[in-house]
Please model this.
Amino acid sequence: MAMRHVALGFQTAVNSNWHFAVFLLANVLTGFGFMLFRASGSPQSWGLVPADSTWTTLVYARNFADTLTFSYNPGDAATGMTSPLWVILLGTTSRLFSVMGMGLPQLAQLGGMLMAFAASSFGYLLVRDLTGLKWFGVLAGLLIALEPTFGFSKVAGSEVAMFSALVMGFAWALMTRRMTVASLLLALAVLARPEGILLAALGLMALVSKLLWEKGEGESLNSDEIQDLALFLAPTALALIAWGGYNQVTTGRLLPSAFYVMFQQPQLLDAANLGAVWNGYLKETSFFNGFQVAISVSIMVTGVYYLIRHGGVHGAPLVFFPPALIYVVSILVPFPQAQWTYESRQHLDAILPILLVLLVLGVAWVWDASVAYIEGQERLDSQMRGHLQFTLALAVVFLLGVPLAGAPYLWSQLMPEYSRNVRNVAEVTIPMAQWLNTEVGAEARIATLSPGAMRYFSGRDLTDATGLNNAEAIGEPVFEYVPASGADYVVAYDNLYIRSWPGYEEVASVATQDNSILEGSRLVTYRVGSSAQEADKNQVQAFIPSGLTLIDSLDVGDIDDEAAHSWEAEPLTDTQRRTYRAGPDAVVADDAHVTSGYESFRVRSVPGKDLTIVKRYDAAVRGAVRVIANGQVVGLWRFPPRRYFFGEDQFVVPGRFIGGGTTLLRFENIPGDGDAAVNNIASYYYWLYVPN
Model:
């Protein structure tokens, strides 16, 4: 008999909570779907995460497990993590799971799936308690579990899924007046990601607005109400004080290092960046793609109405958090105008479960209104009511199906992307870390501009020259800081500037042919210190004047030479001196004037003979100019990319434009033309040649 009661009790529990098992299963299956899918040539993704920022978090978690401190290099306190809560959670549980053969990357992936399950569960509770309709809650939980972009995020190893779960939990607790739970979840959200501060501000505004709304005109909050608000915010305040105090003591700055390294100077409105958020992120989600936009927005607006009507002011944080986060992030984080990667998407992925909840609430309003209408029609017989209810069910399927019609396609895009991202780490970062361990002595000091996976896999102390994990480097010019730090080597992704820096010499490199998330396709180790010699700046370095005779030259930046050639430029925006490589073994130090308008000067020429103009220019910021000789438009000169900073290129003015012993040349800047869209042209040196 006792066993029968136990069996019946278990069956009742299963029947009442089956949906939670479904949420867990859906999140685990979709998570492993990402990790087990292997694009051509990719390794298995279980145990490898796709973003360098996540590897940085794992470095902190590993050191926390060993030393119980937040450090990038063991024993050296740092503030490079954006989520102390995720670091603590991973660090404290890693010992237990390591016994089971599970490393930190696997633990982060598993933890992300569990946190996404929590987000699904809170989404279910929120919709169920708000609508009184269990099945709509189940729909909300399932949609969160199956959303492709959020699915990528939950197995990326970052704290995004945890933060999203805390946001959803806070919204549910606030809506259902579980104020103690809401208070604790809000404090945890602040420690999960800096965006939690925005959530706290919205929560405070909602509570104050509710209290003032209930008062008469001219009344203010009394002492008991202020005390209740203070108690509600006390855990959050303590969390902020602890985190801010740690940052201040460690680096002398109140905020994490990322705020000073990665974020741009905020402005009231960055329209271009906001446009990038819409085009690169929102339009690529499963419910804002193509024709779905109008339907999704309409349903979500209806969901907002439903939420405010039934949840009152307590629903305001859930309504305002997505647009507020989009706005704040758009003025702080510079986003790519082209295709986004997870490094950019992770700033916004926490809004996806909220948007899905609003979508379900909008459909729930349609259901409620339609059911009320059908039940109010007393003349309808039972058969007609059944037909109408069936039609209503089809309408619900349509209203949810159309906005999510793009989900299968998005899954087909994001799963290979995840696999390729992981392959980048396996092809580039891990081999370079292994090379450092075998080829560079333990006593050598190594700096890096790629601080995450490189630090994790090398297992040796590194100097982070970006400043993210090294307060000394914040605000310092990278190229000057590296030798000043005493580094013997520096590891960085190849680019024109670092390739051209005279103080570095390449000693090893690893490349990928399919870069999908790395800062570059080629990771290089440079020896600090170089044998390259400084060349005579008055001589061309790359151009070969075969069959030509030099008849004149202009050293821009030399006042006497400029005066001798009647040089002028309007408007003059900058004067600069640069020392960079002009070739693999030649270093040039030269001055330049920068203009956004035009420059002109007079040079020697031979009547009727072609005049070849050779220019030393900034190959990183190339642009294009309109060439005018003696008042006649000759053509357009687009400056091509070069391997090193100092590029040289030539333009031939046909002899028919040359009528005398001197020629007046004028170069008019064409903003946005050429290989690089720029508004300024930098001129360092000109050489003028005629045929022999």
Summary: Residues 19-405 form one domain. The chain has 22 helices and 17 strands. The mean pLDDT is 89.
